[in-house]
Amino acid sequence: MWPRERKEDFCLQICLIFSCALPRADCHVSHDSHQTANSTTKNFPCCTCDLEPRQTTAAADGSACHSCMILNLRILSASAARVPCLSSLFSLCRAFFWLVSLLLASLIWFILVHLSDQGNARLQYGLLVFGAAVSVLLQEAFRFAYFKLLKKADEGLATISEDGRSPISLKQMAYVSGLSFGIISGVFSVINILADSIGPGIVGIHGDSPYYFITSAFLTMAVVLLHTFWGVIFFDACEKRRYWCLGLVVISHLVTSGLTFLNPWYVASLVPIYIITFCMGIWAFFTAGGSFHNILKCLSCKQEDDSRVMMYSALQVPFED
Amino acid sequence: GFFSSCEGNSVERKIYIPLNKTAPCVRLLNATHQIGCQSSISGDTGVIHVVEKEEDLNWVLADGPHPPYMILLDGNLFNRLVMQQLKGTSRVSGLAVSIAKPNPPQGFSPGLKCPNDGFGVYSKDYGPQYAHCNRTVWNPVGSGLSYEDFDFPIFLLEDANETQVIKQCYQDHNVPTDGSGPEYPLCAMQLFSHMHAVTSTVTCMRRNSIQNTFSINPETVCDPLLDYNVWSTLHPINSSEKVDPKKEFIMVATRIDSHSFFWNIAPGAESAVSSFVTHLAAAEALHKASDVHLLQRNIMFTFFQGETFDYIGSSRMVYDMEKDKFPLRLENIHSFVELNQVALRNGSILWMHTDPVSRLNKKLHIQNKKGGTVNSSVGANVTLQEVGFSQSLPPSSFQRFLRARHIPGVVLTDHQASFQNRYYQSMYDTPENIRMQYPEGLSPEETLEYVTDTAKSLAEVATVVARALYRLAGGANDTSAIQADPKTITQMLYGFLIKMNNSWFQSIIKPDLKGILGDDVPQHYVAVSSPVNTTYLVQYVLANLTGTVVNLTKEECLNPEKTPNAEKEMYDYAWVQGSLDPNSTSRVPYCVRSTVRLSKALSPAFELREWGSTEYSTWTESRWKEIRARIFLVASKELEIITLVVGIAILVFSLVATHFINAKADVLFSIPRDPGAVAY
């Protein structure tokens, strides 16, 4: 057990560290100038504890410091979403879900191929198309499953947190999950091609198009972006129970997958896919809360006051006396 | 997921066409030099250019706008002149040679004009006027290409279909349009043949010993060429003891290996196969004679390996004889008969070469011998004739024996002065070269049995040799019963030149060796892993032709030391798998007892650890990791740079955009309400 004075000093030191982690402009500095001369406390040059300096020495249980720490923690957690560890955890989880969906889809395709007549080329092509469709549906199903998981996690985190609100924001999670989904899907579709592009040769000796690598790269980019946008739209649709949005997402995924079967006629596959990407991008932007007004405001603004005001007003600290 | 290409590795299949039927040119080293070819460690790439006439070379050497080039050379242009031009330029990154069909009519030999010079008997101390082919150039067609050092890879395209694929790719993409260069993408080829050894045997053996001494996982860079000599005697001798010095032997010798510019391509029809097949037939004929056990001198039939590379086999045998490691000593050898290239006789003449320097000293012996051999040629369609007095011995194993001791001997060949063989030690020394022709439409079995004219001609030679040996060994009876069998000879020619995997060879080898009989054209290169297929087959054919079938079980045959009366030191026992029963799939194996043995053919330089020896052969072969070839299309540098720049630009743009959106996220995604509410 520490001696009381040491405990308070330590508490104040921690408080100081926390407070100084916040930007200066956010702080509300409050100290009585006429007390500083004969007080034994330190001035807190950065963030606020809003305490009378004399109270710090008198507080026997360190409750003033305790509340100071809570206040600073709250401020920090308000930008918790900027702390990367929570998001990356979720994105890894999401990537794993995509991998599982791919595994299931390929298992289904593999079994079907081996059960069927391997010599019949038309049948094999049909099975390939079917396999692609099954994979799309499985991916969307796993996306839905992940949404449910995230909802549960959200509720859980909310119950154990101090103020009843969970530290994660569903909108941000939608974006993160869509992005990780897109990244793992893109990685899987392009790594094989990248590995073979390291050698000295390009595709084409058997008559294929020599633009194979660059179109694969653009296709992968479209895939990554599409999955990100679909993630945002999907989660929002599930949240607000707009099932026609869900259906549209699934249909557009199927259409995109089907368009790739038009390769190597790259003009016919790549252009529509990019059109779909652009449309999905705009839809996701509006779903996430954007608007033209916001864009204009963003492009023309240098004002930072609004955000500060909003943040400040979010500080509803119950002071314990 | 996206299935834009099929499964797994199909992208690689879209890009590359591998060339499977190729033979590389590898690096060989001797005491002072390295010969052969070398590629970079990650292969050499170049734009393909087909050179079918001399004018096409100008594009490669000067005009072409996309160096370096990978040349597809027609076989007829693979000569010293063209190769000198290619060696001197940096615009050539490799060469692929297609076999000329039919054989180049003017002859083609990448060997030296004076083979094995400096390792024979003629030097400045002994017959200097004959040294370095001063009087007779043995191989006038020889360009010496095999003994040059190239710094780019050279491959042989054995399959005409693959050559056609490459030419088609060239036609589709690389043909210059109206004087200006062709447009990208261009057809290119990549050759991998990186060799680990450099400079000379001295350097690479020193590096080997450093690796073996200091490294936990030693990496050898080169291996000496080695194999086994096959030898057998007419009367059995005790191989574990030394032979009585008063016993006299007549040594009969041939070489069984050949070489060409490319690795493991050595058909050697005239240079090796014809001679050892004749030798085998003569051995068979002698063993069948009725009174062989009464002959006063023994005959030793020896088949030397590695003679192409400065007499590896014969120099080792001479060394072993001198050092008492061989049952015989040099004193036991009464005379020496060697067979060298006997298939291309002009008319009926078979030439006898003798050493002019020693002849002056040993006139008496030679007279006896000559008398014997000339007499015995009566009745056969062969005329033995001596070459002129002032001609030296051709390159032969006999020269190594002469270096050690003056032994009377002759070398029998079909050429009087220069070789009749215009494809000496090249890939064109094929059955066509020795005029082996089969009628159309025969099955493999029938082809095996069909007696060609070549076989008949060689049978005559073998008969003469056998009769001469009989006389030399002291036989006094009539020799007309000694006849070589053309049927055996034609079977041997088929097996050693066309297809090893035939029913006769299958029946005379050990059961666990049947994997060595491949369906490819047989090659007779000495190689570094021993024994090679040729050595095994010569051993088993000799055992079959000169041995006897004994009634032993498999156990007894495989363990003769436990069998009473087996006399393990006198004989060699082999359990062979026998021929196929006509109506079943099983074979009837049996035990063969013969006097056939193997003796190690590794140059004494490696035993004595004299890597820089000029006395003994020091040939080694470099090691390598991978050897392959493939063709594909290459894109222009501009397209590659554009792709890279576009990619980097998109990356930078996306990073900037993400940072911007992230920084302004609260502005962009805010729903405008009264400021009391929470933004997130």
TrEMBL record, chain A:
PROSITE patterns named in the record: PROKAR_LIPOPROTEIN
Record localization: Membrane
Residues annotated as transmembrane: 96-116, 122-142, 173-191, 211-235, 242-259, 265-286
InterPro entries: Aph-1
The UniProt record lists the keyword Signal: yes
Single GO BP term: protein processing
Signal peptide annotation: 1-27
Membrane topology (UniProt): Multi-pass membrane protein
Coiled-coil region: none
Keywords: Membrane, Notch signaling pathway, Signal, Transmembrane, Transmembrane helix
UniProt keyword Transmembrane, yes or no: yes
Gene Ontology annotations for the cellular component aspect, listed alphabetically: gamma-secretase complex
One matching Pfam family: Aph-1
Subunit details: Component of the gamma-secretase complex.
Family, as annotated: Belongs to the APH-1 family.
Function, in words: Potential subunit of the gamma-secretase complex, an endoprotease complex that catalyzes the intramembrane cleavage of integral proteins such as Notch receptors.
Name of the protein this chain belongs to: Gamma-secretase subunit APH-1
Organism: Chrysolophus pictus (Golden pheasant)
Automatic annotation (TrEMBL), chain B:
Organism: Chrysolophus pictus (Golden pheasant)
This protein's record includes keyword Cytoplasm: no
Function: Essential subunit of the gamma-secretase complex, an endoprotease complex that catalyzes the intramembrane cleavage of integral membrane proteins such as Notch receptors and APP (amyloid-beta precursor protein). The gamma-secretase complex plays a role in Notch and Wnt signaling cascades and regulation of downstream processes via its role in processing key regulatory proteins, and by regulating cytosolic CTNNB1 levels.
Keyword field contains Transmembrane: yes
Pfam family, one: Nicastrin
UniProtKB keywords: Cytoplasmic vesicle, Disulfide bond, Glycoprotein, Membrane, Notch signaling pathway, Signal, Transmembrane, Transmembrane helix
TM ranges: 641-661
Protein name, as recorded: Nicastrin
CDD domains per record: M28_Nicastrin
